[in-house]
Amino acid sequence: MNKAELISGVAQRTGFTKKDSEKMINAVFDTISEALEKGDKVQIIGFGTFFIRTLKEREGYNPARKEIVKMPAINIPAFRAGKNLKDRVRIH
Question: By CB count within 10 A, which of 41, 46, 67, 89 is most buried?
Answer without folding.
Answer: 41
